[in-house]
TrEMBL record, chain A:
Residues spanning the membrane: 20-38, 50-70, 90-109, 146-165, 172-190, 196-213, 234-255, 275-298
Role: Core subunit of the mitochondrial membrane respiratory chain NADH dehydrogenase (Complex I) which catalyzes electron transfer from NADH through the respiratory chain, using ubiquinone as an electron acceptor. Essential for the catalytic activity and assembly of complex I.
Gene Ontology annotations for the cellular component aspect, listed alphabetically: mitochondrial inner membrane
Membrane topology: Multi-pass membrane protein
Family: Belongs to the complex I subunit 2 family.
Protein name: NADH-ubiquinone oxidoreductase chain 2
Organism of derivation: Eolophus roseicapilla (Galah cockatoo)
InterPro entries according to UniProt: Complex_I_Subunit_2, NADH_DH_su2_C, NADH_UbQ_OxRdtase_chain2, ND/Mrp_TM
NADH:quinone oxidoreductase/Mrp antiporter transmembrane domain location: 17-282
Domain of life the protein comes from: Eukaryota
TrEMBL record, chain B:
Catalytic activity: a ubiquinone + NADH + 5 H(+)(in) = a ubiquinol + NAD(+) + 4 H(+)(out)
Keywords, alphabetical: Membrane, NAD, Translocase, Transmembrane, Transmembrane helix
This protein's name: NADH-ubiquinone oxidoreductase chain 4L
Family: Belongs to the complex I subunit 4L family.
Species, as recorded: Emberiza fucata
MF terms (GO), sorted A to Z: NADH dehydrogenase (ubiquinone) activity
Transmembrane feature ranges: 6-24, 36-55, 61-81
Record localization: Membrane
Pfam families for the chain: Oxidored_q2
Function: Core subunit of the mitochondrial membrane respiratory chain NADH dehydrogenase (Complex I) which catalyzes electron transfer from NADH through the respiratory chain, using ubiquinone as an electron acceptor. Part of the enzyme membrane arm which is embedded in the lipid bilayer and involved in proton translocation.
Length: 322, 98
């Protein structure tokens, strides 16, 4: 319970910071609080995930501190919104990309999500993304647009491509989060409010998916196929939330994509908009496969309702009807 | 004097590269992480002492405090790894590929 409190404290510290050291301190507190959560079950996979996570996040926070220090050397400002030194801006974008899991620094993310339990994976992919995105938002006017947009396009591509061959649901969700992060960061230099919107909606949808998967304990695609026996209503709502994550029009997941494409066309970047929408088709494939596996397939031996679990249902039913 | 500054930046970049291109043990990457943060600490003390501003003197001390947190978590993770694994090599971290 103390760990949750310290997580909340760390995020609050970074969000309400105007000095680089407070932001760095909040990020460190977050990593400190999450690592025992990841390695709670004394399984070697969990501990390995914890070490990978720790190493990457520690280097990223050190890089961030270094960028703030070079900025302080050249301009004497420790203010977050006053990044004037161009190499420190570059370093900062790289550091936050490592923290978030954008390409080319995404390699830790699927493995860390795979090694942690479902609730900690939920925390990792939603709550831990919040402080770096707030730092990005605070410094969005001084970031490097070309680097960010290339990283974003590559992350959308990679999130779609590498999610195609996965059978473990946590890895699939990891790649979906990588692609959604790409969508978030592509618009950040032009309209930061849209990144906030995408972040909120994405966190809502992924919390509902994670919680529904947690209640049925589906870690593989094969267990998804037999989960309709346990709670049929949950399966239908899971299908709807998955499709909204993919970004299909009548559901809420389409809204950020639509607004982002609109904003990009306002900035005369129509080629990037088309490339992004083409690449999200790749993600659509495995979302569709997930929905197909969860709802339409029947198990070889017919089994009726086996057990009733305690389910966090209201989150699920809210998100498609938002 | 910029020469000392360039030297410390060199230590930072070289230790950063050492983290990314590790030899065989995990402990070495942790050591170079520590070295990164030490170099950052030296840079902050230099900047705060050269610009005689009294408010920014807190910064190096707080950095040191948080690095003590980090290093304790470092070492506990190392211990847990050595409990569950036989050796300390980085090639052992391939369980999560499947």
């Amino acid at each position: 319970f103390i760990l949750m409190l310290s997580l909340a404290l760390g995020t609050m510290i970074t969000i309400t910071s105007n000095h680089w050291v407070t932001a760095w301190a909040g990020l460190e507190i977050n990593t400190l609080a999450i690592i025992p959560l990841i390695s709670k079950s004394h399984h070697p996979r969990a501990i390995e995930a914890a070490t990978k996570y720790f190493l990457t996040q520690a280097t990223a926070s050190a890089l961030m501190l270094f960028s703030s220090m070079t900025n302080a050397w050249s301009s004497g400002q420790w203010d977050i919104t006053q990044l004037t030194n161009p190499p420190s801006c570059l370093l900062l974008t790289a550091a936050i990309a490592i923290k978030l899991g954008l390409t080319p620094f995404h390699f830790w993310f699927p493995e860390v999500l795979q090694g942690s339990s479902l609730t900690t994976a939920l925390l990792l992919s939603t709550a831990m993304k919040l402080p770096p995105t707030t730092i990005l938002l605070l410094t969005s006017h001084s970031l490097n647009p070309t680097l960010l947009s290339t990283m974003a396009i590559m992350s959308i591509a990679l999130g779609g491509w590498m999610g195609l061959n996965q059978t473990q649901t946590r890895k699939i969700l990891a790649f979906s989060s990588i692609s959604h992060l790409g969508w978030m960061t592509i618009i950040i230099t032009y309209n930061p409010k849209l990144t906030l919107l995408t972040f909120y909606l994405y966190s809502l949808m992924t919390t509902s998916i994670f919680l529904s998967m947690n209640s049925t304990n589906t870690l593989k695609l094969s267990t998804l196929m037999t989960s309709w026996t346990k709670a049929p209503m949950l399966n239908t709502t899971l299908m709807l939330t998955l499709l909204s994550l993919a970004g299909l029009p009548p559901l809420t997941g389409f809204l950020p994509k639509w607004l982002i494409i609109q904003e990009l066309t306002k900035q005369e970047m129509t080629t990037t908009a088309t490339i992004i929408s083409m690449l999200s088709l790749l993600g659509l494939f495995f979302y569709l496969r997930l929905t197909y596996c969860s709802t339409i397939t029947l198990p070889p031996n017919s089994s009726n309702k086996m057990k009733q679990w305690s389910i966090k249902k209201p989150v699920n039913t809210l998100t498609p009807t938002l | 004097i910029p020469l000392i500054y360039i030297n410390i930046i060199l230590t930072f970049t070289i230790s950063l590269l050492k983290i990314l291109i590790y030899h065989s043990h995990l402990i070495s990457s942790l050591l170079y992480l520590k070295k990164i943060i030490l170099s950052l600490f030296i840079i902050t003390t230099l900047t705060t002492l050269n610009t005689h501003s009294l408010l920014t003197n807190i910064i190096p001390i707080t950095i040191l405090i948080f690095t003590t947190y980090k290093t304790t978590i470092n070492l506990t993770l190392l211990i847990s790894i050595s409990n569950t694994y036989n050796l300390n090599y980085i090639h052992n971290l391939n369980l999560l590929q499947y």
